[in-house]
Amino acid sequence: RMLGHPLHHLRTQRASRSARDCGRCRSSHQSAISTGSLGSRVIPAMKNLAVFCGSSSGSQDIYAEAARALGSAMVAADIGLVYGGGTVGLMGAVARSVHDGGGKVYGVIPQALAPKEISGEAIGELKIVSNMHVRKEEMAKHADGFIGLPGGFGTLEELLEVITWQQLGFHSKPIGLLNIGGYYDSLLTFFQNSVDQGFVKAVNNDAILVSKDPVDLIKQMRNFKAPVVNLARAAADSSAALGVDVSHEAK
C-alpha cells in the first residue's frame, strides 16, 4: 500500500475567502522581519517523513549510528519512512532501523541506480521509477516532512530543492537537518551569510529546523509553523490559501 496522500494538480479555482483568511493568519516569531513572518498553520499528525541521506556510510561511525537512531525515533513516534530505496550506506541503515522496528518503509529508486544502491533484498516496499525527477516527485508526494542526514551532492540537491519549494510557497511541510558531528555547520553558515548579504530572507532561513538529536528534531517538526510567503500571494493570489501545501488538495 502506498504511504501518504496522492498528488493532485495545482488548484486553479479561486479559493474561498475563509480558506484565504485562514492561510493568511500570522503569528509572532523571534526571528520574524518586516518582509515576512511565520504563519499559524501547524502541521497535522505526521504519518511519513522523507529522509535524504548518503548511499555511503561516511568516514565516521557516528553517521550510521545517527541514521539508526533516527529510524528508532521514527518508529517510536509511529512515523513511516519514505526514502531513496537503497540498501547500502546511510540509506540502508535508516531503512533497516525502521523496518526492523516494525515501521513502514517506502523506497523509491530510479531503474538505473538499482544495481548500484540495492544489495540483496529490498527493504520494505520498493517502487522503481524511470528517472531522478520522478523519484523526487514520488518521495515528496508521500512525505509529510523532510529530514536531511549527512550525504553528498545528491543529498544536498534534494534538500535545497524542498527548501526552495517551501520558500516559494509550493509546500508548507517541515524541513529538518540532523546535524551530526557538526556535519552541516558550514552549510548553515552559508545560509546565514546568504541572509546577511540580502539573498535569502531571515524568515525562510529560520524555517529550516536543526538538531543533533532525532527525537528533538521530530518534536520541532510536529510543532512547525509554515512561512507565509508573499511571493505566492503576488504571483497567484487566487490559486491557494497562503501557507497551505498547493501540491495537494486541502486536507
Give structural notes.
It is a single chain. It contains ten helices and ten strands. α2 packs parallel to α3 (89-100). α3 (89-100) links the parallel β4 (80-83) and β5 (105-110). The model is unreliable at 1-42 and 240-244 (pLDDT under 50). It starts with 16 loop residues before the first helix and ends in a 15-residue tail after the last helix. The longest helix has 16 residues, at 61-76. The strands form two sheets. It has a seven-stranded parallel β-sheet, with helices on both faces. It has a three-stranded antiparallel β-sheet with strand order 1-2-10, with no helix packed on it. With 251 residues, it is α/β, with parallel strands linked by helices. It has helices at residues 17-23, 61-76, 89-100, 114-117, 132-142, 153-168, 185-196, 202-206, 214-222, 230-236; strands at 26-27, 38-42, 48-52, 80-83, 105-110, 125-129, 146-148, 175-178, 208-211, 225-227.
